[in-house]
Specification:
The complex is a heterodimer.
Chain A: E1 2-6, E2 9-13, H1 19-25, E3 49-52, E4 59-60, E5 71-73, H2 77-91, H3 108-116, E6 139-141, H4 151-160, E7 165-168, E8 175-178, H5 194-198, E9 204-206, E10 219-224, E11 233-239, E12 242-248, H6 261-265, E13 280-283, E14 286-289, H7 292-304, E15 311-314, H8 321-333, E16 339-340
Parallel strand pairs in A: 1-5, 15-16
Antiparallel strand pairs in A: 1-2, 3-4, 3-5, 6-9, 7-8, 10-11, 11-12, 13-14
Chain B: E1 13-17, H1 21-24, H2 26-37, E2 41-45, H3 51-55, E3 58-60, H4 67-80, H5 86-92, E4 93-94, H6 96-103, H7 108-115, H8 119-131, E5 135-139, H9 141-144, H10 149-162, E6 172-175, H11 182-187, H12 204-214, H13 226-234, E7 240-244, H14 248-251, H15 255-264, E8 267-272, E9 284-287, E10 296-299, E11 304-308, H16 321-332, H17 341-351, H18 360-366, E12 369-370, E13 394-395, E14 414-419, H19 435-440, E15 445-448, H20 450-455, E16 463-467, E17 472-479, E18 487-491, E19 519-525
Parallel strand pairs in B: 1-2, 1-5, 2-3, 4-13, 5-6, 7-8, 8-9, 14-18, 15-17
Antiparallel strand pairs in B: 10-11, 11-12, 14-19, 16-17, 16-19
Helix pairs in contact in B: 4-7, 4-8, 4-10, 7-8, 13-15
């Protein structure tokens, strides 16, 4: 173990830990844009800079390893000034349309500007002027808002493995793009949308969420994806009895926040107008709406009206354990083992 | 899965056979690619050049329906080259000699003749698999949906045991289950031959335990499987069919046969969230709540039981399936008084040894538990068969290659194989009604090779009629290098081009799984 001091507090960490991790252990907050513990460290955004006694320059805490006896200060005047300038530079080229931006309330750029009192930029110069990319049905890319932290690029390469995007060009012209700047639809992108979830600003917006509520108005419910057998944990964001956004649940031991296109963007079938809302009974070849009482009465009569061996049931790989349990209990209680489901299909 | 999803990244070799993982289980696909980037050897065996094949160290493109020959070939090489885990075979298994004799003739050259995979690739795959510290096999329906499906699985078990690659972390036999709760539905006894936790219905102890707990008389003979139920209807033996959340009118093999049965059955009740192709044929339709509209548990492919929580209300007067079932039970005269899913779960845990230690309280606190979890202090089981197999010793079963039931001939010159795609799911009940997804992938495209396109005078995007001995469908064509010459691939997501009108309902004699992966078809271009 290595011992160091951060803001006057002693802490012991593993020798391979970074200053950021040591600070986290003490509960000391350090702002970051480009850092994600699941991804390669790049130290690109310089938001996490801290002062280390005996070192001339400020260092990026996310990728500086600890040393025994290190003395670190995370909130000195010099550190604050560096972060302020950093934000000031980012704002020089960032639309200040927070009033309508979907990311408002959940934006790290906004949060840090609030924290460091930066409301507009002192630097006037060229501004990016990219067209909105909204040709796919899943999410919009507004590269004018991109701060080039690279989280999306690394997520696409290191988590998904699709490697559909990269940072193209240099300097002011740097832009996150597919090969040849083609639309995502013709790239290897599989629309998992994990880039959307890691974006710290409003550059990537899921279409299903637009205008559906501010992040602070939404309730979160953790549950399990309804699609394949992987069983990914999902966080459903709810407003007015509607799912307005879905994210992978980072606390799930199964998927650690990772998702695919179906779990991420495919739960809107719930509010499809074709949902069945009342029991139906076929009379003279046509479905007629009925009460539960009438429908269940009829079904009960038919189930009881035959010998067990004449009855069969197909249970559901979509329903819960509890429901599958009751289904087989019901059929077996009616005298039949003719119970199966689509495990074979 | 005998292993856990979290163990994938630490495996030395991944052998993925008959699984289009990046499309059917995308998050597991991410992990396989991560493992490969971290240094694991990735071997992909599939008739199609699937996405994962592009990431593989070794891609074996075998002819559809020749899995057991290939697997026997791998074992042959392992034995020939002295790569057998002698200690594991001696201590943990039985029947090795018979299996060894059976694979003797499966030399790489002989297997090349059956599978089309180069003999040297077979040798190299065998070495990569056998020489890894931990090697894990992953498979899905590419292995099971054959008339020889059971033999394929037995051959996989032979391969794992001969190298001692089972019963440890990151080494095992891992069927990836298709549906969110197909593992749970099996665990819960939604099968004709077992109660919960695979307790046989024809076992006296199990019978008396459930009889006593439920307070009813129980049938003692195993029932019919789904394919037998359909035949049973057509034979006049089954008169009433109750379907909860299934869509056999699109998902089952040889659909015309199934539709005939659904139309014939005296009384059909369907409980679902949409008016599916099956529900449309029902006498009574009961509207159910969907996953985010109710509480309960799902069990995933790694045997992890997880809590499902309610986020929104069901639409209109739709009810959760458990409520419907309980209301129905009371009208039949059964006295169930469950106050909610948690109380039902307590009953499941009481009657199911592998679930005995699981409770909602623990699931809430511990974020899911993997069975077997026999008591409240048990942490769950990340990987199976650590010290012994469920039956004691692992049994080698000799397996012989057996060709598919129906192969291409002069009249039907192409081989049709079926599966899923990334964007849609099963019969499309959900994804076809998801705005973004359906607008992105609105129609089926049958994949054919460049060579066949040329041979039959078909161009990319052309409309064709695909015909088998059982039916025909019209579908547009995608000319691609994903499929080899002679093979057509279609998914079963689209009712407009219901591929199961074509598939064969010839089943594996033991598992009764239809041969969705191989049947013979012909193509002809038709006017749009």
């Amino acid at each position: 173990m290595v011992s160091l001091t951060i803001n006057g507090q002693k802490v012991e960490v593993e020798p391979e830990a970074t200053i950021l991790q040591a600070a986290e252990k003490l509960g000391i907050f350090i702002p970051t844009f480009c850092y994600d513990p699941q991804l390669t460290l790049v130290g690109a955004c310089r938001m996490c800079v801290v002062e280390v006694e005996g070192m001339r320059a400020l260092v990026a805490s996310c990728c500086t390893p600890v040393r025994d006896g290190m003395v670190v200060h995370t909130d000195t005047e010099r550190v604050r000034m560096a972060r302020e300038v950093n934000l000031n530079l980012l704002l020089a080229n960032h639309p200040l349309d927070c009033l309508t931006c979907e990311k408002n309330g959940d934006c790290r750029l906004q949060d840090y500007c609030y924290l460091y009192g930066v409301s507009e930029s002192d630097y006037k110069g060229d501004r990016k002027d990219y067209e909105l990319e909204d040709t796919n049905p899943f999410f919009i890319r507004d590269m004018n808002k991109c701060i080039l932290c690279g989280l999306c690029v690394r997520t696409c390469q290191e988590v998904n493995g699709a490697a559909a995007i990269e940072i193209m060009n240099r300097g002011f012209d740097s832009k996150v793009a597919t090969a040849f700047n083609d639309p995502l639809e013709t790239s290897p992108c599989v629309f998992c949308g994990m880039c959307v979830d890691v974006c710290p600003v409003g550059a990537l917006t899921p279409k299903q969420s637009i205008g559906k509520g501010r992040s602070y108005e939404l309730d979160t419910v953790k549950t399990v994806c309804p699609y394949c057998g992987t069983g990914c944990g999902l966080e459903l964001y709810i407003k007015n009895n509607e799912i307005v956004r879905v994210k992978g649940d980072p606390s799930s031991p199964v998927n650690r926040g990772q998702v695919c296109v179906k779990g991420h963007f495919g739960t809107d079938f719930l509010k499809n107008p074709e949902r069945l809302k009342v029991p139906l009974i076929k009379k003279n070849g046509e479905f007629v709406e009925s009460s539960w009482d009438e429908a269940l009465g009829l079904v009960a009569e038919k189930l009881k009206g035959v010998k067990g061996t004449e009855l069969a049931g197909l249970s559901s790989a979509r329903a819960t354990n509890e429901e599958n349990y009751l289904f087989q209990k019901l059929l077996r209680s009616l005298g039949t083992n003719n119970i199966d489901h689509c495990a074979r299909l | 899965m005998t292993n856990s999803i979290g163990e994938i990244e630490e495996a030395g070799t991944l052998l993925v056979i008959g699984s289009n993982t990046t499309e059917t289980h995308p998050v597991i696909g991410y992990r396989m690619k991560m493992a490969q980037r971290k240094g694991a050897s990735l071997i992909v065996v599939d008739p199609r050049r699937i996405d994962l094949a592009e990431h593989a160290d070794l891609f074996l493109q075998l002819r559809p329906g020749t899995n057991e020959a290939l697997l026997n070939g791998l074992i042959h090489v392992i034995i020939e080259e002295g790569l057998v885990d002698e200690e594991f075979v001696r201590e943990r298994t039985e029947g090795y000699a018979e299996m060894e004799a059976a694979v003797k003739k499966y030399t790489p050259e002989y297997v090349e003749g059956i599978t089309g995979v180069a003999a040297d690739d077979i040798r190299q795959a065998a070495r990569l698999y056998a020489q890894a510290e931990n090697a894990a096999i992953f498979y899905t329906m590419g292995i099971t949906q054959h008339s020889s499906g059971t033999n394929n699985v037995l051959a996989i078990a032979n391969l794992a045991m001969v190298t001692g690659n089972v019963g440890k972390r990151s080494a095992g036999v891992n069927p990836l289950r298709g549906q969110n709760n197909v593992q749970g539905a099996c665990d819960m006894g939604a099968l004709p031959n077992v109660f919960t936790g695979y307790q046989p219905v024809d076992n006296r102890d199990a019978q008396s335990k459930f009889k006593k707990d439920w307070g009813v008389k129980l049938p003692t003979v195993p029932g019919l499987t789904v394919t037998e139920i359909i035949d049973g209807i057509l034979d006049g033996k089954i008169k009433v069919l109750y379907v909860m959340g299934e869509n056999p009118a699109l998902s089952d093999a040889n659909l015309n046969h199934v539709l005939e049965a659904l139309d014939k059955v005296d009384f059909l009740v369907v409980q679902d969230i949409f008016l599916t192709e099956t529900a449309a044929r029902a006498d009574v339709v009961l509207p159910a709540a969907a996953f985010a509209e109710k509480k309960g548990t799902f069990t995933n492919t790694e045997r992890r039981v997880q809590l499902v929580r309610q986020a929104v209300n069901p639409p209109g007067d739709a009810w959760a399936d458990w409520v419907i079932l309980q209301e129905l039970a009371s009208r039949i005269g059964l006295k169930w008084n469950y106050r909610g899913p948690e109380e039902i779960f307590r009953e499941i845990a009481r009657l199911t040894p592998s679930y005995a230690g699981i409770s909602y309280e623990r699931l809430e606190k511990e974020g899911g538990l993997q069975w077997p979890c026999p008591d409240a202090g048990h942490p769950g089981t990340p990987y199976l068969h650590a010290n012994q197999f469920s039956r004691g010793k692992g049994r080698f079963t000799p397996v012989e290659y057996q060709p598919p039931a129906e192969e291409p001939d002069e009249e039907y010159p192409l081989l049709l194989t079926t599966g899923r795609s990334l964007f849609h799911y099963h019969t499309g009940t959900m994804t076809r009604r998801s705005g973004a997804i359906d607008s992105f992938k609105p129609e089926e495209l049958a994949q054919i090779s460049r060579e066949d396109a040329q041979k039959f005078g078909i161009g990319d995007g052309d409309l064709v009629k695909v015909t088998s001995r059982r039916g025909d469908v019209k579908v547009r064509v995608q000319v691609t290098e994903i499929v080899p010459p002679g093979v057509v691939f279609m998914t079963f997501h689209f009712h407009e081009a219901a591929v199961n009108r074509l598939t064969s309902n010839k089943v594996d004699p033991i598992a009764k799984i239809p041969e969705y992966k191989v049947c013979a078809v012909k193509l002809e271009k038709v006017a749009p």
